[in-house]
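Chapter review: from sequence to fold.
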Amino acid sequence: MSYCEFAPNHPIHKAYHENEYGFPIRSDAPLFERLVLEINQAGLSWETILKKKENFARAYNHFNPEIVAAYGEGDIKCLLSDAGIIRNRRKIEAAIYNAQVILGLSAQNGSFSAWLDQHHPRKKVEWTKLFRSTFVFTGGEIVNEFLVSTGYLPGAHEVWCPVFERIQALTPPWMQVDPEFIWTSPGAK
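The token string follows.
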């Protein structure tokens, strides 16, 4: 069963499927949010992350990269004691490090999305190599889901899904290139 068949009738996945998954994101804080959430999903279900999404936003200062980049050991201890999020030191440290990277990329390119645009289009394997050399805790599945969920790679929705048409109207980055160039697969959150 595809995500487009499963999610519309699910109390947790429905809103994410209909309003966020695959929609292009242009601002640094929402892009950083998606990266943090995808990293935290590693080894867990996406439903667990969606249930804790508001807690993550609170704990990570609404994903403001400038604030998170300045987190120190005291902040890490606070996050490790916060039962509302995933309490994994490696994932917390990855969020802080990646926020610092995003600030650097924004300083050099104008924004995180401008950096993504500069490297688009790429095939999935090329994106993964780029992310692994730039960020931490970014394996192939994390990179794929980050890029699919933010509109840089196709596959978030089936073409028959009503949400596909809404996303298509926004012309996400993946639609701006020859679809044969980039890696494709059906969406499977």
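Two observations follow directly from the output. The first helix runs from residue 3 to 6. DSSP finds eleven helices and no strands in the chain.
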